[in-house]
Amino acid sequence: MNSTAPSRIKETSTLASVASRDDDSAEKLIATMRSFLENEHNSSQTNYSNTRDVGLPICSAIRSFGRGNYRSVIDTLLPIRSRLHEFGGSHAQRDVVERTILEASIRSGQKRVAEKLIQGRLADRPLSTYNLRKSKEILAC
């Protein structure tokens, strides 16, 4: 994949690689992004800061999720959560990242983080089946 491809394409590709348990492909995508960032000539490209600040952290966190390193997912994604819109993509694609943070908080036993996240989701979509199901799951923890 071209190193100048938009970050959201690489995030989707990373997600697909992790879902299919193809860690090597996910790692290659992340390495391509790192290589792009290491080349000082790329720093003037519009995609540079987006890749550095949002795209690479999302891809790394998705890979961490696939490896079961849920704490790393939270540590990486919570600080940039308010910036997810910067990488573009659809609402559904950004929701995948939000759900990843929520699921990682549940799986890592970080109930307070999970409660805060689900409260925000329920405020936005109180009748969402997913949100209601996750709320019950968190309460049961």
Structural account:
- This protein has 141 residues and is an all-alpha fold.
- The chain is 72% helix and 0% strand.
- It has helices at residues 7-19, 23-38, 46-66, 70-77, 91-107, 111-124, 129-140.
- Helix 1 (7-19) packs antiparallel against helix 2 and helix 5 (91-107) packs antiparallel against helix 6 (111-124).
Give the secondary structure arrangement, pairings included.
Blueprint: H1 7-19, H2 23-38, H3 46-66, H4 70-77, H5 91-107, H6 111-124, H7 129-140
Helix pairs in contact: 1-2, 1-3, 2-3, 3-4, 4-5, 5-6, 6-7
Structure at a glance:
The chain has 141 residues and is mostly helical. The chain has helices at 7-19, 23-38, 46-66, 70-77, 91-107, 111-124, 129-140. Helix content is 72%, strand content 0%.
| Residue-averaged pLDDT | 87
Order of helices and strands: HHHHHHH
Largest β-sheet summary: none
Amount of helix: over 70%
Shape: globular
**Distance from first to last alpha carbon:** 41 Å
- SS summary, helix count: 7
- Class by SSE composition: mainly alpha
What's the total number of strands? 0
Q: How big a fraction of the residues is strand?
A: under 5%
Q: What would you report as the Rg, rounded to the nearest angstrom?
A: 16 Å
Oligomer: single chain
Low-confidence stretches are none
Labels describing this entry:
141 residues; 72% helix; mainly alpha
